[in-house]
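Hello again, I could really use a second opinion on something today. I owe you a coffee for this, so here goes:
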Amino acid sequence: MRQSLLASKTLKETPKDADNISAALLLRGGFMDKLASGIYSYLPLGLRVLRKIETIIRDEMNAIGGQEVLLPVLHPIENWKTTGRDEMDVLYHIKAGSGKDFVLGATHEEIISPLAKKLIFSYRDLPLYLYQIQNKFRDEPRAKAGLLRGREFLMKDLYSFHANQEDLDEYYKKVTEAYFNIFNRIGLGRETFLTYASGGSFSKYSHEFQTACESGEDTIYFCNKCRVAVNKEIIEEQKICPECGGSELETKKSIEVGNIFKLGTKFSVPFDLNYLDEKGGKKDVVMGCYGIGPSRALGTIVELYHDERGIIWPESIAPFTTHLIALGESEDVRAKAEDIYKELVAKGIDVLFDDRDEMAGIKFADSDLLGIPYRVIVSEKALKENGVGLKKRSEKEEIIVSFDEVISKVK
């Protein structure tokens, strides 16, 4: 991609209404644009990051038997009345011209359960695992912190359907492992912990995946021995580690990036979602649900990976792996940069080529802000040494290397 053609502009100043680090850097870097409080447009750079996160999530969901679907955002109010959740404070209500009432999807239990009823008839149809990556809409009274608390946001929700509790328990473990695989692959694994939380009406406990971060608005109590944590909301009843029984729990600020619930029959009973067992008896389907917010994960990654100059993307989800920069107006430099760009593209390397007619200082400042993992600099100085400059965004020093060395390092 040529930067001169990129539908994105960097900002020198932080927007006044950017109330956290990730919002400030994503807006300044031209990764997204703010339409209203809690509502953002993804520009090409931001969408590339988001799609890479989604791809990793799909890999891991498919690996545990998930089948992807895409459910409607517009829901008939009758589905929500069936479960008694039609008066939830966060719902956006819509009245159609015909007078029929709808809500925008804040979650999808009310849609997936009646769908599953059309797919599940006997024990032979179980277990079944369906997931989607879809927008959610919640009338959040405190929309803030950029992508961390929005009114419209992206969510991956997986729903599992089982013949009994034991089968759900086994799958719950598989999903937990898959979630850690996801967080490891997108760069959050080291700081993300399985966290015991209130199960609400579902079960005694549910589990959250909380990423330790000083700018987080949640508080967890973390066990260094077991690497599990307890959410602040249940610390009064669970003052010791739920895994090892230890009492020396460390307090950490955190951001919730995922959660998993054992729903049981809470959403199968209202929709008569049942099956015939081996003896012909009718039994209720047992359900689980598992959420990850790709957009919230994106914001959390920026909260963790940045410095005073800008973002430092993990290689697995960076918008591009390489930022090629041509310095100066020399014909030799420009010709060499063009040749290198074409060869990088031919070798399948994801490259952003800064071919703009800008001063070196502006190009370097923008490169730091965008946070692309590798910077390749074509300059007269480097050409005299028969090489190009190479610098990792996470490191301070630039070195002169041959073009072959560039290929081996950035591929």
